[in-house]
Amino acid sequence: MSVIGSLSLILLLWSGVEEVRLDQLQQRLATGKDTTFVVNFWATWCKPCVEELPAFDKLSRRYKDEPVKVILVSLDNPAERQTKVEPFLKRRGYELCDAVVLNEPKPHLWIDRVDQSWSGSIPATLFIRGERRLFGEFQFSPELLESIFSTFQAEGK
C-alpha cells in the first residue's frame, strides 16, 4: 500500500476526539485496574506540550499489545474540538493514543481532583495503575518518559 493509501486508511479508522467531563475521565480510569494509564494534559497552543506529544505516541505504539493506555487530554476550548484538535492530531498520526477534550470551564474547581500538587500549568502527566499514582508537571523527552514509565511499571510488580 502506498504512503497516501496508508494515511487515508488511518484517517478513516481514526475515531476522533471525544468531549468529556472530568467525572467521565475518572470513570474510564477506574474501570481498568490491570491497565496502566498515562494521562497527558496538553493543548494545541502550548509549545512544550506539542513538542512532547511524539514521546507519548512512541510510548503508545511500543506498548500497544500490553495493558497500557495513553490518553491525551486536550485543554483546548471544547468548541474547537472538530476544527482544531481533531485535525491537529490527525495530521500528526496520533491514532493509537486515546484523545479527549476536557470540558471543564473552571480549572480552579477541578485541578486538585487530578492531583493536589498540580499548579495548573501544562504539560502535565499522570500515571495510574490501580491505586498507584505518579504525577509530573513538566515536559517529557522520549527517553525521560520511557524511563519514568518503566520505573512506574516495575514498582508495581
Q: Which helices and strands appear, and what pairs or packs with what?
A:
Elements: H1 3-13, E1 18-20, H2 22-30, E2 36-42, H3 47-62, E3 68-74, H4 81-92, E4 98-102, H5 107-114, E5 124-129, E6 132-136, H6 142-155
Parallel strand pairs: 1-4, 2-3, 3-4
Antiparallel strand pairs: 2-5, 5-6
List keywords for this structure.
157 residues, alpha/beta, Glutaredoxin, six-stranded mixed sheet, disordered N terminus
Strand residue content: 15-25%
Overall structural domain count: 1
- Give the full name of the CATH homologous superfamily: Glutaredoxin
Taking Cα atoms only, what radius of gyration do you get, to the nearest Å? Answer: 15 Å
Low-confidence spans: 1-14
- Global mean pLDDT: 88
Q: What is the rounded distance between the termini?
A: 41 Å
Structural class call reads alpha/beta
- CATH architecture field: 3-Layer(aba) Sandwich
CATH fold naming: Glutaredoxin
Write down how many β-strands occur, each being a DSSP E stretch of 2 or more residues. 6
Helical percent range?
40-55%
Shape: globular
